Amino acid sequence: MNRNIKKLAFFLMGISLFQACDNDGVTGESDEFNTGRDLPMFAAELTRPGAVAGNRLIDISTGEVFTSADAESIPEKMDFIMLWGSSSGLNFISPSDIGRLSEWASGRTMNETYLTKNETTFVKIGASAETDALYEGLISQDQVKALYESTLQELEADEANDERVYGPSISLRMLEEGDLVLAKTSDGVYGALQLSTVVASSTGSITLSIRLDNREETPVTPVDEVNRLFAYEAELSRPGYANAQRYIDFSTGNTYQFGSSIVAPLENDGFLFQEKIDMLFYNASSTGYTIMSPSESSVTGWDSGDYVATGWLQRNATEFIRLKASEITDSLYMYTYNKELMRKAYDYATQAVTEQEDYSQAADGPGTRIRTIENAGDLILFKSVDRNTYGMMLLTEVTSGGAGKLAFEVKVDKSEEVVIPAPPKRYLELNGVGTSTADFIDFSTGRILLVGEAELESENIDVAHLRGSNTNHNFISIAQGDNGFGAWSVAFRQRIEDFPTNNKAEMVNLGDVATTTWKDLDQNNRQDYIDAFESGVGAPVLHDDDDDGRLTQLAAGDIVIMKIFRLEGVRYVAVRVMAADNDGGMTIRYKLSPAE
């Protein structure tokens, strides 16, 4: 580097002599040139590069140093951090050098917490007596900038240069006492930083002598918190089983189970949270692991998917793109850290995906379904069309088979998320026994009312549920006569007959062998309900022999089809009894037909 130093020294000497001549009145006005009287010059000490409590970060515009905790609230002021490595020695690293920072725990914390990531570009001149003289010769701001630019040009032209040690780079390593580091920061400041003293260790320190050109300084505007990405780790498991985590809400990282139609919903049953779910996870013998949007039509290729297709009222649309594992995908995931970059990454992926080797739209997208997922390192970008969120999931583990799993890291931009209202869940827990606790059901809103509440809005009541000592669980039409409510008490029957409106319900019980009917019944196709109802009419074993306005002995697995006559028209309801305890309650799911 001596050749370069000599050239730079000669260059700076020329500037200095020119200024000196001008100040002596040889040419021009004396106030047209910077004599160095306003050159910012100060010292700063950075300490304990291996400790979170060390003063390791610096704003070179002021020379102020910060601990990691203090710096978190003002990342827009941080120009670099000093870190120590057993093999790399003393390091200066810009907040924007995410890859380099990820090699330290504290650096990974910076990556996660700094929404504003300033970029400082460094070049270095190695320690020597000539370097000392070069630094002392800086007497004006324009000399600081000129030295940075000249050093940059020399290093870029030197094919043997090690950029990790000398730059140009946004991080430097192997720094030593006497080195002269020249820097250009995100706020337009040029700095000359000489390492005056160095105690080289993780608990050591350095003293910096600093001279600046801050004539064009423009403070960095902090990035608004709305642009922050939400990051987490998650996994989906056992795609061949009902009691497994197979659905995910990308906005929160919450995962949900597929709950079968026979038992009561599990605590985190996807059916109960359908408005939040962005992706479903399945396995197939021919194509392996498949992920898809709840809106995808091919979901009916799986039994559990049939229940999504015919039973969910809200099926969110999500689009997926898979980029196969490579250094590019690793970098894309690592360096996507805010809203703007996430949108750019998604746009990039829409173009790059088709250029991949062995590209297949069915396997790689873009689309609402991608399959043959088998490799850790693949990067899947997604966009929720309905919820207006963007994100990416980096696969970290893929264990194939029906009992296997997908593990992944996720980053998601939900800054403009649309909150979808929860649809009626169409799941009810019925506990009515006698006249005071009877359940009066409004299927349209999914409400259960007691008798006093029901008589105030009787026009909305479809049927009642009661449990009898001999008849067990009953559905009874509000228009049912003495064989219905009168079985409990005459007064109870009379009170219901006095309702302002007594909606009539005709009901048939298709029994517990009608699983296919329930599964195939499209809740949005009115004719499906009519066909199911008429298929049960006239089958005396499967509905009440005396009157089609009351069903008794309801049991788990039964499929009940109701034809309900309201003032506004006829509606059909399909009910699946999921659990029925003859000494307790009954749980049901139901589907409600479109209006006439």
How would you sum up this structure, described in words?
This protein is 22% helix and 30% strand. It has 596 residues and is α+β, with helices and mostly antiparallel strands.
Anisotropy-based shape: elongated
Biggest sheet descriptor: 5 strands, antiparallel
Share of helical residues:
10-25%
Strand content: 25-35%
What is the β-strand count?
A: 30
Key structural traits:
596 residues; alpha+beta; five-stranded antiparallel β-sheet; 30 strands; elongated; disordered N terminus
List the topology elements:
Layout: H1 2-23, E1 41-47, E2 57-59, E3 64-66, H2 68-71, E4 80-85, E5 89-93, H3 98-101, H4 105-113, E6 121-125, H5 129-136, H6 141-157, H7 163-166, E7 171-172, E8 180-184, E9 190-199, E10 205-213, E11 230-237, E12 245-248, E13 255-257, E14 279-284, E15 288-292, H8 303-311, E16 318-323, H9 327-334, H10 339-352, H11 361-364, E17 369-373, E18 379-384, E19 389-399, E20 405-413, E21 427-430, E22 439-442, E23 447-449, H12 451-454, E24 463-468, E25 472-477, H13 490-497, E26 504-511, H14 515-520, H15 526-536, E27 550-551, E28 559-566, E29 569-580, E30 586-592
Antiparallel strand pairs: 1-10, 2-3, 2-4, 4-5, 5-7, 6-8, 8-9, 9-10, 11-20, 12-13, 12-14, 14-15, 15-17, 16-18, 18-19, 19-20, 21-30, 22-23, 22-24, 24-25, 25-27, 26-28, 28-29, 29-30
